């Protein structure tokens, strides 16, 4: 199986190279060198740890953040109207229902209840309110999630951090500021809207979240002194990155685990050294890692990142209105090859749109094929670990097998959670998944020895998890209760949050209900 996977990796890497007709010479060499720097060891001066509570940013009354997106419609109609079109991106897939294996893989973690594919930026607040993962809190101090779960959802976050400081913002439960985080991702997430530069119609790019600036500094990419290319890429790293909640200081602040590098092995090494885990798996008891969405990391390792082609160049490309005015399209196109070919791929590639779309789809299918193979191995490993525990295995016996499960699933999640990794860096995706298959095989080999030692007949009997309903039942999740509680929360709590936000002038129109 691994030999076949590595063969697929080589073929897809070759195919991607053949399709890509843009070369390093198409961009300034200095930009290419800067992109290559993303893969180099960190500067000696870089911090090797998360910040202490004392090092968290203090309140900054000088930082002003305009959070109401509608206020920019008059002065920037082209950009605003294209941003508003993200409301048309309504389609999403209920991923754990489409692939019930995920319910097992995330056993004991809230993602097992609900995980959906992303849709337009217009819905960031709506979707985090409605997702089962945030539960049904009745007041500011209840619910399963911390305040940090709001951090990527809109400009109100930067405003709150400037008002409260990081310690003040990150403390407490998610529901605490439900009436404050009400504007979805928009203008002030990326631009210094108070500056004269912005008023003059220039980008005035800004990152107003201190934890993002710290992460960039740690890898030698100070935002203020970076060139335009690096700044454009870093803006998307506000949210489209791997991160974790550092709980060592009792604050649950957001940290990017880049202190040893941004590839899958370096981040894993960092997590292992600080003994971090997101949760303990409910049946295998393995200390697990949950990848978020390492899009920035995947992009930086791919062909486009290495050649200085940024997220904005493809997903927010320059376009021309009917009057001939050129502007940046803020609709954030998900599949540029399919939906905006002439303004994106065609500017560098000489292949036809049909060829490019087929290439993207083939990469996606190939990555998905091996990803599912890894999922199958992991599902079996979790149930085999449970069988070993049930047979009387000891912690000492299980330690290495559980670590192998942790490492294998981390690689699955790193590849699965990165939006578009199949085109951003298909060769990296397949290499990551192949190494995950290696570790899953190692875990199952170790478990086979333990099961044999304790007299367990193999293969064990695996539960039927072929549908989401069956998987939820096997994993002990009362999905109907979860849904009922969430419906009550949406019906009773959300209207109060919206009412308070409107009364305070934090928003002109409440976020859509669905």
Automatic annotation (TrEMBL):
This is Cytochrome c-552. Keywords: Calcium, Electron transport, Heme, Iron, Metal-binding, Oxidoreductase, Periplasm, Signal, Transport. Ca(2+) binds at residues 242-243, 290, 292. Heme c 2 binds at residues 187, 190-191, 330. One of its GO terms (biological process) is nitrate assimilation. One of its GO terms (cellular component) is outer membrane-bounded periplasmic space. It is an enzyme of class 1 (oxidoreductase). Its cofactor is heme c; Ca(2+). Binds 5 heme c groups covalently per monomer. Binds 1 Ca(2+) ion per monomer. Heme c 5 binds at residues 304, 345, 348-349. Heme c 3 binds at residues 121, 236, 239-240. GO terms for molecular function: calcium ion binding; electron transfer activity; heme binding; iron ion binding; nitrite reductase (cytochrome, ammonia-forming) activity. It catalyses: 6 Fe(III)-[cytochrome c] + NH4(+) + 2 H2O = 6 Fe(II)-[cytochrome c] + nitrite + 8 H(+). Belongs to the cytochrome c-552 family. Heme c 4 binds at residues 311, 314-315, 424. Heme c 1 binds at residues 149, 152-153. Its main location: periplasm. Residues 173-275 form the Cytochrome c domain. It is found in: Periplasm.
């Amino acid at each position: 199986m691994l030999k076949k996977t590595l063969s697929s990796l080589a073929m897809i890497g070759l195919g991607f190279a053949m399709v890509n007709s843009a070369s390093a010479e198409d961009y300034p060499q200095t930009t290419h060198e800067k992109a290559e720097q993303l893969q180099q060891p960190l500067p000696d001066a870089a911090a090797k740890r998360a910040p202490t509570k004392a090092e968290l940013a203090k309140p900054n009354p000088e930082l002003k953040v305009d959070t109401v997106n509608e206020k920019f419609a008059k002065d920037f109609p082209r950009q605003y109207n294209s941003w508003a079109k993200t409301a048309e991106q309504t389609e999403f897939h209920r991923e754990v229902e489409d692939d019930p294996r995920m319910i097992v893989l995330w056993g004991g973690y809230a993602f097992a209840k609900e995980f959906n594919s992303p849709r337009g930026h217009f819905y960031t607040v709506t979707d985090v309110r409605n997702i089962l993962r945030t539960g049904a809190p009745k007041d500011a101090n209840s619910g399963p999630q911390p305040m940090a779960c709001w951090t990527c959802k809109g400009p109100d976050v930067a405003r709150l951090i400037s008002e409260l400081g990081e310690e003040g913002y990150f403390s407490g439960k998610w529901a605490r500021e439900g009436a404050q985080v009400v504007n979805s991702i928009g203008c002030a997430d990326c631009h210094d809207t108070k500056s004269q530069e912005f008023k003059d119609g220039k980008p005035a790019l800004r990152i107003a979240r201190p934890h993002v600036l710290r992460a960039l500094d740690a890898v030698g990419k100070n935002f203020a002194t970076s060139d335009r290319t690096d700044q454009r890429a870093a803006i998307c790293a506000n949210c489209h990155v791997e991160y974790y909640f550092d709980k060592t200081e009792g604050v649950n602040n957001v940290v990017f685990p880049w202190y040893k590098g941004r590839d899958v092995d370096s981040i894993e090494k960092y997590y292992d050294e600080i003994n971090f885990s997101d949760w303990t798996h409910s049946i295998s008891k393995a200390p697990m890692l949950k990848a978020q969405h390492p899009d920035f990391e995947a992009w930086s390792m791919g062909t486009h990142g290495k050649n200085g082609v940024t997220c904005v160049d493809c997903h927010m490309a320059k376009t021309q209105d009917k009057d001939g005015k050129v502007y940046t399209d803020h609709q954030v196109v998900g599949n540029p090859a399919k939906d905006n070919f002439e303004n994106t791929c065609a500017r560098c590639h000489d292949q036809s749109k049909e060829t490019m779309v087929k290439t993207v789809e083939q990469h996606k299918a190939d990555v998905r094929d091996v990803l599912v193979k890894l999922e199958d191995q992991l599902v079996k490993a979790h149930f085999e670990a449970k069988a070993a525990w049930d047979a009387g295995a000891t912690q000492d016996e299980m330690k290495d097998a559980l670590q192998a499960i942790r490492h294998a699933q981390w690689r699955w999640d790193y590849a699965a959670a990165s939006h578009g990794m199949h085109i951003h860096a298909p060769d990296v995706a397949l290499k990551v998944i192949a190494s995950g298959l290696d570790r899953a095989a190692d875990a199952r080999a170790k478990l086979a020895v333990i099961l044999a030692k304790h007299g367990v007949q193999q293969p064990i009997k695996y539960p039927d998890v072929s549908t989401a309903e069956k998987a939820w039942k096997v994993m002990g999740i009362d999905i109907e209760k979860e849904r009922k509680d969430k419906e009550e929360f949406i019906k009773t709590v959300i209207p109060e949050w919206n009412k308070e936000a409107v009364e305070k002038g934090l928003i002109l129109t409440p976020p859509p209900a669905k």
